[in-house]
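Title: Prediction job returns without error message
Component: structure pipeline
Severity: low
Priority: P3
Assignee: unassigned

Description:
Job completed but the reporter wants confirmation the result is attached to the right record. Sequence as submitted:
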Amino acid sequence: MKDVEIEIQVRISDTELLLTFLNAKASFKGEKYQKDEYFSPAHKNYLDKKPIEEWLRLRESKDNSITYKNWHYDEKGKSHYCDEYETHLDNIEQMRKIFEVLDIKPITIVEKTRKIWDYEDYEISLDSVKDLGDFVEIEYKGKNKEVIPKDITDNMINLLKTIGIKKIERNYVGYPFLLLFPSDDQFETV
């Protein structure tokens, strides 16, 4: 599914149970540090709309990248997918200079350590996010182009419940929003 991302971010009650499952059933892909810097253009302040629909990100990691995301929300204000345009970036400092010239301003930085596993059609990551804590992110990596995003995200939640996770709190707004507007009412127990 080119240029579409289907994922969930959740806080869970039992990370050890999930780790036991992943180590037994999934393929460990590695661990990496990621520093994500989020930006907003002067002509269209992304923070003016709640929930935030658009993000522009520079990611510093082993493989630097630039990403634009446009989230799609349902009538209840929940998102199950976004349009995602991403590419490798050779020189992140030059991109920052370009942003500065174009009046694209930094708004927040998310730093995390991510451990990644592949399981069936999913990439499952355990994120330790600076100033926020630990989260699980599950992203659909399957090849079927005819999927319904809400069905996929429901299946992700059901996978966690099948593993035996008792408490699952869904984060619909993303790490940058949680850092900018901290509040526990940003989570929904599912």
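Comment from assignee: result matches the submitted record. The chain has a mean pLDDT of 94.
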